[in-house]
Amino acid sequence: MKFKLKKQQIKEEINTFDLYKDYTNIIESDNFITFEQLSATILLKMGLGFNSPIYVEFVEKFKKALTNKWDLLFKNFVITFNINLKFSNDVLIPMITTTEQSSNTTLNFYQDKNEEFNKFLILFNNELTNLLDKNFSVEIFYELAIFKSKETNNLKLLFSKENVERI
Q: Can you tell which superkingdom this protein's organism belongs to (predicted)?
C-alpha cells in the first residue's frame, strides 16, 4: 500500500510538456497574421474573392499536399514532413528546409504555368516575405504558422496537432 501511494505521488509531480504551446502562444500574439488575412490581401490586389477559381485551386492544392505529406515549394523555403524525436519516433511533422526531398512529391507554390495562378503565387510569396521581414508571424495555411526567429534570423514553423500524422 505504501508503495502505491509513493508511485501515485510521483506521477502527480511529473510535469507534462505541451508540444504545441509555442503554436498556441504565437497565434495569440499581436503580430500574428491569419491565413484569411494573408489571403484577403492577395485577393484584394488581384480583384478576386474567396470563391474565385484561382483561390479555390490554391486551397485545394495546399490541402492535397498536407494530406499526402508532400513537399511544398515556396520562393524562399520548402515545407517538408519528417520525423522529429521531440514529438515522437513515429509521427510525421511539418518542417522548414531549403531543398525539396528527392524521394517525395513536391507541389510548387512558387510558380505555375497558368498566368493568373502564377500571378497569385508571386503575390503570395512576396507578401509572405514582406510580412516575415517585418517580424510578423504568419499562418501560411490553417494551423501552420511561420515566423523569423529573433535569435537566429532563421525561419521557424509551428503547427497544431492537426498537422501531424502517425506512420
A: Bacteria
